[in-house]
Each structure stands twice: as C-alpha cells, then as structure tokens.
Amino acid sequence: MAAPPTTPQKLAAEFLGTAFLVFVGAGSAAATGVIAAGTKVPFSMAQLGMISFAFMLVIVGAVYAIGHISGGHINPAVTLSLAVSGKFPWREVPGYMIAQLAGAIAGAAAIYLTLGRLATVAAGGGVTAYNPATMGFGRGLAIEAIGTFMLVFVIFGVIDHRAVPGWAPMAIGAVVFAVIIVLGPATGAAINPARYLGAVFMLEAFGGKVLWSQLPAFLIGEFVGGALGALAWVAIGRVRPDAAFTSLAPSEPSTETANSEKVSGATS
After folding, report:
1. Virtual CA dihedral for 174, 50, 75, 14, nearest 10 degrees?
2. By CB neighbour count within 10 A (0-12 exposed, 13-18 middle, 19+ buried), where does 117 fall?
3. What's the CA angle centered on 96, arms 19 and 113, to 5 degrees?
4. What is the pLDDT of residues 78-125, one digit of tens each?
5. What share of the chain is helix, strand, coil (3-state, %, to 5)?
6. Is the CB of residue 57 less than 8 Å from the CB of residue 174?
7. Residues 111, 201: contact at Cβ < 8 Å?
C-alpha cells in the first residue's frame, strides 16, 4: 500500500492548485478587460459566461489533479469549513491557508507577466469589487456569503461517501460557474479569500487602485458563508462518523459496494 502524501507535498499541491485557479480564473477576467479596451466591445453575458466557464474548467482540472494529494481545497473558506465541521484537523489549517494565499499571489503575478503590467492594471487585474455607489458593505458581505454558502454546501454533498463517485470535481466546477453568473455583476463573485487577496495584493503592488474598505466584506462574507454552508449540510445530511470528507478527488467504490454490484449483476 502506497504511503500517504507528506505535509510538504500537500502544501505544494494547494499552492499550485490555487495558483492555477487564480491565473486562469482571475486571469480570464483581466484578459476580458484587456480585449475590451482594444475592441470597445461592451461587457455582456457572453463575456461573463466565458469567465465563469474558465473558472469551472480550471477548478475541475485542479481538483482532479491534486484532490487525491491534498484534498484539493484551493480555497481557505473550504479549509476552514472542513475544520469547523470536524472533518479536517485544525493543526493543518494554518499551513493550508498560507499555501493557498501564496499560490494565489503567484497566480496573480503570472497574469501580469502574461498580459503585461499596464494592460492588466488598466483592466483591473482580475480584482473583484462591488460598486460603493449602489451597494453597501452589508449587502456586499451578504452576497459573498450566499455564494460561498452554496459552494461549500455542494462540496460537502459531493464528497460524502454516499454520493455518486467520480463526479465531485465536475459538480464543484459547475456550482462555481452557476454562482459567478449571478454574483458576478454584483460583487465579482470571489467566493474564495485567497483568490480575492491574491488579485488585490498584486494590483496594489503594480500601482493599481484597490478599495481596501471592501476587504472585510469579502473576507467575512466568504468565511462565514462557507462555515454556515458546511454546518447546514452536516445538519441535513446526517453525516455518520465514518463519512469520508478527506478528499475532493474521485473515490473508488468500496469492496462491499463492488461485491453487491457483482451479485446484483449476476442475479439480473
């Protein structure tokens, strides 16, 4: 039997997975802005749909790639939610969050390398924000909380050992796609503290304008919404002590399930 991944391997996986998420996801938003600056094409549902699709695809790929190594959290709100619900050790939370934030910063920096500093800054650097002229702090916080609640709720459902095996990454990517379609026009739909902070830190570093007053709304909304989503699923899912929540990767059916399928097939 193969030895489990070491802590450095887990942290490296979270670093890379989050970097991929930010580079492709936030990068797609920045790239849309860069293209729009040259073509003068107004932003519409078509552009929002492509950004959402980019997020979906990179999440599916990243979770399939590292889910069996680190669990494929790639989101501090997910890590905290797993810990709050007792499904992830608290002692590993700080390391995971640091790795995720570092990965997000690296992914955001790669956007500037790819698209160019001036063009990326002009396009907003993939930073999420709400319009303070039409939206208050509380509403922005609530919107991010709703989106993160939905994300974590779905994650808990699909990684439960009773769920259909192998579909967790697709389901997680799909709910992110759906959430961004609705939340995108309101707050930008960060629903991930690392994704938000990585883009914000890099925009500030490269001379862009950052609305620091909005930072608490995003962070509080995402962490609280994620924790509530986890607790809501635990409450209605009636999770047993042997439920498997350690990985977002596709799981193999149990021997008992496999044997019962063979018996069922033989008798049908």
Report:
1. 100
2. middle
3. 20
4. 999 999 999 999 999 999 999 999 999 999 999 999 999 999 999 999
5. 70, 0, 30
6. no
7. no
Q: CA-to-CA distance for 93 and 86, rounded, in angstroms?
A: 12
Q: Is 106 helix (H, G, I), strand (E, B) or coil?
A: helix
Q: In whole angstroms, give the CA distance from residue 93 to residue 33.
A: 35
Q: Is 27 helix (H, G, I), strand (E, B) or coil?
A: helix
Task: Give the predicted TM-score (pTM) of the model.
Answer: 0.88
Sign, CA dihedral 92-94-97-98, equals negative
If one counts every other C-beta atom within 10 angstroms of the C-beta of residue 102, the result is 17
Q: Are 107 and 18 in contact (CB under 8 A)?
A: yes
**Counting beta carbons within 10 angstroms of the beta carbon of residue 95, is it exposed (0 to 12), middle (13 to 18) or buried (19 or more)?**
middle
**122: phi then psi, degrees, rounded to nearest 5:** -65, -30
CB 132 within 8 A of CB 172: no
